[in-house]
Structure prediction request, 369 residues.
Amino acid sequence: VSAGNGCGHTLLTPHSGTLSSKNYPGTYPNHTMCCWRLQAPPGTSLLLAFGDVDLEPSEHCAPSSLLLADPQTGPAYGPYCRNSVPSAPLLVTNSSTVTVLFNSTSHRSGRGLLLSYATSQHPGTGGASPGTQRHPWDVPDPPLTVCFSVYCPAGCKDIHGDIWGNPSQGYRDTSVLCKAAVHAGVIADELGGQVTLSREKGITLYESAFANGLHSKRGSLSEKRLVFHKVCCLLSPACDDVLEVVAFNASSWWHEVDTLGQDRAWVAERAALSTTGHSWAAEPGAEAAWLELDLGTRRNVTGIITKGSSEQHDYYVTSYHVSSSRDGKNWRPYRGSSGQEDKVFEGNADSQGEVSNAFIPPIVARYVR
Prediction:
């Protein structure tokens, strides 16, 4: 939990999380405070990673300070400010409960605080590439093409920092690693998790993409790049194949008569991503329209790619829900890793580009709507 008027981006879960002061990485405001209470499962201890502690210096860190305490044993670490920083970027505590207290008075400068944590169940922590200065975790520098694994805390999607590239090409090695992992669809931002990747030879140009609610940038040549691997792919390379759709069905379809009086049917079968020409479109004015994919048998579905139809019309879907069925009769809405409410996926912003969204956890079903 967090409380106070000085809290910035915060996502706290039992196993990992990310927190920052208000306005980070801009100057933190005067006369604010925030208190975060981190609670790990019993029998585990908290590992805290200091991504950035930039508070105005002073004697005894009096005007602005960061203090970490174990509620049972009292103050344990700090106070910290710019002239009294943590001695190491990673702090291993012996407690499953830690209170993080941030205070500010009048000051002139300072980015504030960025901190992440994980539990002792996840000792292999990692997440920022060499060259990034604003992210909690350090990453080892293995030889090219050697796979390694790091743990990314929850809450990396909205931290400061850029990513260049896309899931199919890989990412420029100066990208914020855990943010790129969310973009690539290998972890859910609200949960975090273990990430397997390799550092491979760079490429000339990295194309931008919108995926899993994040925009990446178009990037220039780099010496190295980051390539993410889904664990199943290490055992079965076919797990990222495009699934064959046996049949398409839809709530309705548009029967267009163009200006020359010619008929054109925007039927469900035209919804396949590789189809040239016009796509599927629901009947104009239709409410709660849906498109259904029959995969022929139960399959493990790890994500979806959508694209609009630029054939004479600038058509695209901006957001959508997903539901699945094993028998075509009983449908289950997809709620994602949070499980609380039906997930709304961000779709396309134009009719030209492709947008990827990952299913974490995957869907096991024959029918997807």
Remarks:
- The CA atoms of residues 232 and 239 lie 7 Å apart.
